[in-house]
Amino acid sequence: MLKNKTIILGVTGSIAAYKAAEITSWAKKQHADVNVIMTKNAQYFINPITFETLSGNKCLTDTFDRNFQYNVEHVELAKRADLFVVAPASADFIAKAANGIADDMLTTTFLASTCEKLIFPAMNTRMYENPITQDNIAKLKRFGIKVIEPGAGYLACGDTGKGKLLLIEDIEEHILLHAAYDHDLSGKKILVSAGPTCEDIDPVRFITNHSTGRMGYAVARNAARRGADVTLVSGPVSLKEPVGVNTVHVTSAQEMFDEITAVSDEQDIIVMTAAVADMKPVNKAAEKIHKVTMPDAIKLTTNPDILSYLGANRREGQKIIGFSMETENLVENSRLKLRKKHCDMIVANCLKVAGAGFGTETNVVTLISADRMQELPIMSKDEVAEKIFDFIQKDC
Ligand code: C5P
């Protein structure tokens, strides 16, 4: 996903420096051209040879190294770079970068580069929270440099608090958000619904379905990686909130309806992947129902059909995408749904096909618009998400 991208990875003197090896290895596997630059202090924590072995490129440490092919290495690399990442970034590096100091290979290259820059701080909580560091961070942000808030927890120095290097998988997602795709959805507001809804019977029990939310989360992630401003309205799932996505948590279909319709007018594209419960109990018992008082039946009523509402109340130019999960007559039933719910596109999947549907890592879908149909082979839910937006951009 990072093919033909040149990434500079700055590594500074923090105990978390060793974690940069994992980022290097991952970026290389994503086919990026990774160029690591280390400060002098970083080399006390991890050897440059590690980065050279993992990246296949010389690890730059010394501005005045004469044993190398380029005369003005920092300027040459700065011109080529698509993304400049500093992870871990020490308080010292942040202070230097904020004040335009260029006294080593990393700070010199940083100052010479005009590409997008992402800084991942890692330091002791007191250093991080010190107003001087905070002021430096605010200054960097004013210049358009992205400083991502660190994690919190037990730190190597024994303190507990903010200042932990962000989880590597989150750093990787930030890199993908900035460098993996042409931002063809930039400027677009996209709303995605995901997961099941839960309809309470009493304070303990509820009606729900097997949706895990994986498809919807993949759709939200793909939209964010392509530059969109994404809101994800999610039913109860056990997935991590996608990085770079505004996630709103709901439980019932009515809550999902309320959250979605509150912001639906602002959206350019709405993708309803959620498995919204069609029915809910007419009354939720105030207290737990016990065996002795158990009713013979639970009276149900219908939930609002969010997709139908959105289709009938759409803003001009807005695109509405629905999902259809069938066990038979997939295309026929999906075409009917497309018309009935006034959608621009239906993503149809058949529950009976191996590798499709709930809880799987993969899906097998057919994309259907009023005059186009594309049958896709089995692929990961991330790949399906990508195909959905390709189809929306080209064919509906
Ligand atoms: O009618 P059916 O449930 O098969 O339609 C599925 C599509 O409709 C999905 O996109 C789903 O998110 C949406 N839906 C909805 N509100 C409901 C039921 C389904 O928005 N109450």
From TrEMBL:
Stored InterPro entries: CoaB-like_sf, CoaBC, DNA/pantothenate-metab_flavo_C, Flavin_trans-like, Flavoprotein
GO molecular function per UniProt: FMN binding; metal ion binding; phosphopantothenate--cysteine ligase activity; phosphopantothenoylcysteine decarboxylase activity
Cofactors, names only: FMN; Mg(2+)
Pathway where this protein functions: Cofactor biosynthesis; coenzyme A biosynthesis; CoA from (R)-pantothenate: step 3/5; Cofactor biosynthesis; coenzyme A biosynthesis; CoA from (R)-pantothenate: step 2/5
Active site per UniProt: 157 (proton donor)
Biological-process GO terms, alphabetical: coenzyme A biosynthetic process; pantothenate catabolic process
Residues the record lists as binding CTP: 278, 288, 304-307, 323, 337, 341
Region (Phosphopantothenate--cysteine ligase): 190-396
Origin: domain of life: Bacteria
Residue span(s) of domain DNA/pantothenate metabolism flavoprotein C-terminal: 185-394
Phosphopantothenoylcysteine decarboxylase, as annotated region: 1-189
Cofactor detail note: Binds 1 FMN per subunit.
Function: Catalyzes two steps in the biosynthesis of coenzyme A. In the first step cysteine is conjugated to 4'-phosphopantothenate to form 4-phosphopantothenoylcysteine, in the latter compound is decarboxylated to form 4'-phosphopantotheine.
PANTHER family: HOMO-OLIGOMERIC FLAVIN CONTAINING CYS DECARBOXYLASE FAMILY (PTHR14359), PHOSPHOPANTOTHENOYLCYSTEINE DECARBOXYLASE (PTHR14359:SF6)
UniProt xrefs under NCBIfam families: coaBC_dfp (TIGR00521)
Protein family membership: In the C-terminal section; belongs to the PPC synthetase family. In the N-terminal section; belongs to the HFCD (homo-oligomeric flavin containing Cys decarboxylase) superfamily.
Alphabetized HAMAP family for the sequence: CoaBC (MF_02225)
Protein name: Coenzyme A biosynthesis bifunctional protein CoaBC
Source species: Candidatus Weimeria bifida
Phylogenetic lineage: Bacteria, Bacillati, Bacillota, Clostridia, Lachnospirales
